[in-house]
């Protein structure tokens, strides 16, 4: 009983001791702290989850940007590869085009397809057979026409040349007697050029062209400057040059005393020891352009016209005819009028020799239909007339007797002359006909120019002209032609120059080109009728025909 009571008391005491109100413990707030911690952990967990979502979104955006950059880089690489391939293809096409163009220019015999199908210069009926299928008269008809018409019409060419040359000799001698050698230009002997001296003149009246070289008075001299000596010459000035008037004591090209020290023991015999070059005033330079040392064509024309007028007044009493200028804008165009009413024209052309060659600078040329730009007054056209005469003479010696080359040129010139009277002048002139013949003479064997080949060679000449017109390209025979015979002595600078296209005005002037093509094909269409018509109506004074002329 006592033991049981003791146990009860012990339990009661233990309960009292452990009661929280009597003895509070330190960990009595743990449940509350645990809830706060749990709540905070939940909040933190939510923040971490939101941060994870944000980071995942940023990573997704970065991945999308990377993919976009990779896509742009890939597209750029593809474009670069495509552009490289296109550039390579364009280069190959350009090289192929240039090769084809060079081959066409050097080897193709027919006209260029580009010249036949362009919208700019499209002409009806250019396609098809050469010469539009024209059938020229046969050899017998051409021979009859030439013998009865052309040779008969030019029978008195030799007498005309002889008369004109005698009169011009007297006229120039009178001119020299009136000139002051200290101030005036000195005139040299004339040189016969062009068709009358190459024996293919067909037009009436017969017209002599004579070059009259002149040189300046001392102490001046001329220094020619060719267009090919400069790289800045425009295309329309090719074939031209300028002539500088230089005093002998100022010509540094002719004396080396101004370029080197001669020393005390050497003396320049030209300039002297104490010579000092003085600048020349423009008023002292004879016939120069204002403010320029270059010779002026207009000044030369005025001087030459005045000089001829004074010379004629000096000798007019010796002759029973009148002399007058034929064309106001051509100073050397003269006309002799006889008392019977007949007249005889001729042309004296003032020229300047280019160094020691047979090239001459001319102030003007006989009127030829052309569409070129107006030249400057200090630009002088370079004439190859003397070389052309030499080439024809040299070629004639190698051709068979009675060769038909001049006959072809005469017939073509006759047809062109008649066409000009019908439709007026065009861009095609006699000089183009002669240039075409010179090219054919150089490319053909001498045996191909026998008298029996007249019809074939005439047709070939007309086909060559047609091809050149369609291509708008006819190269000058001497400029840039390295196939020209070296025996002619052509200056090397001219041989090595760029070829000069005589048909360049057709490229720039479409209306002139159309008129020329229409006139050319109309000439071909009228050729058989003209040949037949003029063969039947021959003047009575041509019954006795002279022997066929040759170049001597």
TrEMBL record:
The UniProt keyword set, sorted, is: Cell membrane, Coiled coil, Glycoprotein, Membrane, Nucleus, Signal, Transmembrane, Transmembrane helix
User: What Pfam families does its record include?
Assistant: Mab-21_C
Membrane topology term? Single-pass type I membrane protein
**InterPro entries noted in UniProt:** ITPRIP-like, Mab-21_HhH/H2TH-like, MAB21L/cGLR
Q: What is its main location?
A: membrane
According to the entry, every stretch annotated as the Mab-21-like HhH/H2TH-like domain falls at 426-479
The signal peptide, as residue positions, is 1-15
GO MF terms held by the record? protein kinase inhibitor activity
Point out the coiled-coil segments of this chain.
41-82
Q: What Gene Ontology cellular component terms go with this record?
A: nuclear outer membrane; plasma membrane
Query: Can you say where in the cell this protein is located?
Result: Cell membrane; Nucleus outer membrane
**What PANTHER family does the record point to?**
CELL FATE DETERMINING PROTEIN MAB21-RELATED, INOSITOL 1,4,5-TRISPHOSPHATE RECEPTOR-INTERACTING PROTEIN
What family is reported? Answer: Belongs to the ITPRIP family.
Q: Report the protein's function.
A: Enhances Ca(2+)-mediated inhibition of inositol 1,4,5-triphosphate receptor (ITPR) Ca(2+) release.
- Protein name in the entry: Inositol 1,4,5-trisphosphate receptor-interacting protein
Q: In which organism is this protein found?
A: Pipistrellus kuhlii
Supply the source organism's classification: Eukaryota, Metazoa, Chordata, Craniata, Vertebrata
